[in-house]
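3.2 Worked example (two chains)
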Amino acid sequence: VELPPEAAPLEPLLVERSRRPITTARAWQARRAQLRERWLDFLGRFPEDRGPVRLTLLEEDRPAGCVRQRVLYEAEPGLPVEGYLLFPAVVRDRVPGVVVLHQTTEATIREPAGLEGPESLHFALKLARRGFAAFAPRCFVWQYRDRDYLDAVRWLAQRQPGVRGLAKMLHDARRALDVLQSLPFVDGERLGAIGHSLGGKQTLFLAAFDERVKAAVSSEGGIGLSFCNWHAPWYLGPEIRRRGFPLENHQVLALVPPRAFLLLGGDCTDGDKSWPFIAAVLPIYDLLGAPRRLGLYNHRHGHSVPPLAEERAYQWLEHFLAK
């Protein structure tokens, strides 16, 4: 499978700056660190110290098999935001935790919590019923807007000059991992992430930049920068469309090995055209002795999550987050 005509060729990954091939795990780690710094320089950086987690319970109900709580917490010091926390009704041992990142929808966190939207995207509710703790945070674009998404972009530019929207999303998704780790019934060594569309984009970057994520499922986020609206100002901005722009998301995906990552596509923003990104990173898994931890499943049902793809996502997380 070849890249679409509008996509730039993918820069080789297992090659040093001197153009010598990388053949050892140690040499790859040095190259990986370079790629990580290049991307962080472009995204803009948030402080690593996010402070302690304090949850305020706003409401609770108990759908069949689980507990669903709407909670308030601070994504950044002094910036409260809501999320939904769901977990099994009976917890006998520490359970794995999954950050669930919602798609572009006015329902925001109510969709993964199972309160609105298509049943196939009730990820957090269904994961809780399968024995996970799931936390769904609200994306900042809806938290700090008045009329449209650009309100949130302007808010971020005033608060954090030089920081791109996706950097804020990454910071907040990492904070969601902090929330899960703070819970005594969650096994902090068994954390994952899942998201569709907007949530799929965030899942890719969370898995890449936070090694606490041991398994991730990204659905229809559009892994190539030319595959969808990565240039929007609430993501990366128009600079990525500049001729000769040196970054591409196979470099981001390359930060994930040896941890597990599944890409779901429907031949819309992801699908067969996404294969070159997977193929570029598979040799890194081989080098690190972790084959079969990277996959692409194309369900060919467009920008959706049909039942078989949904089930494969849950099975992926169960397999790689099992004890």
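3.2.1 Second chain
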Amino acid sequence: MQDRTVQDRKVGPPPMVDGYDVVVVGGGAAGLSAALALGRARRSVLVVDSGSPRNAPAAHVHNYLTRDGTPPEDLLAAGRVEVAGYGGVVITGTVVSASPTDGPREGFEVMLADGRVVLGRRLLVTTGLVDELPAVAGLAQRWGRDVLHCPYCHGWEVRDQSLGILGSPLGFHQALLFRQWSADVTLFLHDQPAPTEDELEQLTARGIAVVDGEVEALEVTDDWVVGLRLRSGTVVPRQVLVVAPRFTARAEVLASLGVKTTEVEMSGHVVGTQVAADAFGATSVPGVWVAGNVADLRAQVISCAAAGLTAAAAINGDLIAEETRRAVAAMVVGR
């Protein structure tokens, strides 16, 4: 059988209607991957995206096989084209709430901020998370460039540079981790207690310096970070700052349906929240799935895309089961 690609088909998205098999809230890697799979499964799907991706400050996506180094906006643009090629509809908008419906149009009413309401037989939420950054002057403006948190996302790009690790409950762990990419690593205690004797021994063995005192601000010259200024006035030269944000799930839509978030711990410390779901993304509310960072704060772009595909397959299977039950019931009634 001939394989007909999206380019071969040259099919654009249909106009937006008020009812879909699946409404996807969030048009990042997870949401678009799910919409692509659902479109290929001949499902009508609507993706509602607010246009504020978490990785917008970053210059490139990494660890995405065959797409390493792609600008985030280019990856999303290509995904939207692919989804449209299978009949999916992607719109810009903000979903403010959702509620279950009864009767002949059973599913979920999805309310948008502009007043529009659409119905989906199933709901997939892929809204991601928010990085809540430490309160250090100048830090937010450099986020995603030379203020980082993930060595697997950015470690290669800052290899062999002078790295500062901002003290946090995860600071010791981050210092040892980033030492893989640079021999010039300094742990700034900031507002954290001094390392234990065992921790200090490990840091010393790896050549990681420790600086006491609270970090007040980033020193920036010509749009480059050149150091960290302590409250004492001392400036310690550094090219990159590593921080530990709090990762908070964007779960307002899910909250309107009674789906709650749970706290996530690393090394005995709460680092953020995510939505509990099974291995396929199904939440505690029947008909509602999640995928991506809203359900897994550790997930990178490629794993978010994979989670979207997994959830899409589960949703399609659930719809098939419902359609089969109705077909059997109709057949029995018709006898």
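3.3 Remarks
The chain has eight helices and 19 strands.
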